Automatic annotation (TrEMBL):
<comment type="function">
    <text>Is responsible for the charging of tRNA(Phe) with phenylalanine in mitochondrial translation.</text>
</comment>
<keyword id="KW-0648">Protein biosynthesis</keyword>
<dbReference type="GO" id="GO:0005759">
    <property type="term" value="C:mitochondrial matrix"/>
</dbReference>
<keyword id="KW-0547">Nucleotide-binding</keyword>
<comment type="similarity">
    <text>Belongs to the class-II aminoacyl-tRNA synthetase family.</text>
</comment>
<protein>
    <recommendedName>
        <fullName>phenylalanine--tRNA ligase</fullName>
        <ecNumber>6.1.1.20</ecNumber>
    </recommendedName>
</protein>
<keyword id="KW-0436">Ligase</keyword>
<dbReference type="InterPro" id="IPR036690">
    <property type="entry name" value="Fdx_antiC-bd_sf"/>
</dbReference>
<dbReference type="GO" id="GO:0004826">
    <property type="term" value="F:phenylalanine-tRNA ligase activity"/>
</dbReference>
<dbReference type="InterPro" id="IPR002319">
    <property type="entry name" value="Phenylalanyl-tRNA_Synthase"/>
</dbReference>
<dbReference type="GO" id="GO:0006432">
    <property type="term" value="P:phenylalanyl-tRNA aminoacylation"/>
</dbReference>
<dbReference type="InterPro" id="IPR005121">
    <property type="entry name" value="Fdx_antiC-bd"/>
</dbReference>
<keyword id="KW-0067">ATP-binding</keyword>
<keyword id="KW-0809">Transit peptide</keyword>
<dbReference type="InterPro" id="IPR045864">
    <property type="entry name" value="aa-tRNA-synth_II/BPL/LPL"/>
</dbReference>
<dbReference type="Pfam" id="PF03147">
    <property type="entry name" value="FDX-ACB"/>
</dbReference>
<keyword id="KW-0030">Aminoacyl-tRNA synthetase</keyword>
Length: 369
């Protein structure tokens, strides 16, 4: 699908202009960008483990079928991630991928037994300094050869789990330093069993860095590797970069400000971000009676992002009140506006806030107070 077809008049389409503008930015392919630096560091590690083994893909378009994004990855029909509240739909059958796993089945069908897929992914989410509707993931997978586990399925699952944990602990030490303490936490993902999350102890606290597991057998059986066993992982590049480079606000990754971009160099994982002048925030509150149905905080955040773009820093519920007689509920949200590059003036923020108020009524059916 061509990029211009992402914005359509289809009634199911919920891709805003703000989100559309991010498609094709390809931060993960800009050589000196922190996202690309992390990607290349991970490539280097996997190349060192099994030279020439892993096919690498970082140009796959983010528009995918809902079937590839959900069905082929065994996401249940009623799973919350399928909701338009969480996922950007172009039409009822087409989405902006919400994970790089959306390409896993197709890549297996192409005959690749080991690969790393990197790309931008899209999710409707809250607004704060660590969440953004577009971020970058890397998907890794390797199918084991039968002679690596004697052809026995149970032994194959154990071998896949063992190799996976050894590799990812090695990756954590490659990125964060030798001696980095790791621990494994049981988790649930529809497409792996058993499933795990890897946590590392870094700067005095435990941090979750990725999810992984042994690939569900039916995914392999349906996509060209019947009877084989495999492992897979998925990690967020922003999460790693914010920790490694001490970047405090996820919006900075999208900045074109040279004071940010010139601080990083390809191959250097030890750069600590040096904050430059931080411009003051502007706070605006908005109170409204909730409509009887259909309101979610994600929908509110989309309205605010649509009006403010990257000028919005946070949206926080600061008060909720239910009228004792009518049973109606009122919410008050505080919106923090802050530019990473300049001071904001009252005139432009008032104009943005007026647009937010108008669209709360027009799009979400809220009654302003």
């Amino acid at each position: 699908m061509a990029q211009q077809e992402v914005l359509t008049s289809h009634p199911f389409n919920n891709v805003t202009e703000n989100i559309f503008s991010k498609i094709g930015a390809n931060l993960h392919r800009r050589q000196n960008h922190p996202i690309c630096i992390i990607k290349e560091a991970i490539y280097d590690f996997f190349n060192s483990q099994r030279p020439g083994t892993y096919a690498k893909f970082d140009e796959l378009h983010p528009v995918v079928s809902a079937a590839a994004n959900f069905d082929e990855m065994l996401v249940p029909a009623g799973h919350v991630s399928r909701s338009p509240n969480d996922t950007y739909y172009i039409d009822a059958d087409t989405v902006l991928r919400c994970h790089t796993s959306a390409h896993q089945a197709a890549t297996l069908r192409q005959g690749h037994p080991a690969f790393l897929i990197t790309g931008d992914v899209y999710r409707r989410d809250s607004i704060d300094q660590s969440h953004y509707p577009v971020f970058h993931q890397m998907e890794g997978l390797r199918v084991l050869e039968p002679d690596e586990y004697g052809g026995d399925p149970a032994a194959g699952a154990a071998a896949a789990e063992r190799e996976l944990k050894e590799l990812l602990e090695g990756l954590a030490q490659h990125l964060f330093g030798s001696g980095t303490e790791c621990r494994w936490v049981d988790a649930y993902f529809p497409f792996t069993t058993p499933s795990f999350e890897l946590e590392i102890f870094f700067n005095g606290q435990w941090l979750e860095v990725l999810g992984c597991g042994v690939v569900e057998q039916q995914i392999l059986d349906k996509n060209g590797f019947e009877g084989r066993r495999a492992w897979a992982f998925g990690l967020g590049l922003e999460r790693l970069a914010m920790v490694l480079f001490q970047i405090p606000d996820i919006r900075l990754f999208w900045a074109e400000d040279q004071r940010f971009l010139k601080q990083f160099r390809a191959g250097d994982l030890r750069t600590a971000f040096k904050p430059y002048s931080k411009y003051p925030a502007c706070f605006k509150d908005v109170s409204f009676w909730l409509p009887e149905t259909g309101f979610t905080e994600n929908n509110l955040c989309e309205v605010v992002r649509g009006a403010a773009g990257d000028l919005v820093e946070a949206v926080e519920l600061i008060d909720a009140f239910t009228h004792p007689k009518t049973g109606r509920t009122s919410n008050c949200f505080r919106i923090s506006y802050r530019s990473m590059e300049r001071s904001l003036n009252d005139e432009e923020i008032n104009a943005i806030q007026a647009q937010v108020r108008e669209e709360l009524t027009a799009k979400l059916g809220a009654e302003l107070r």
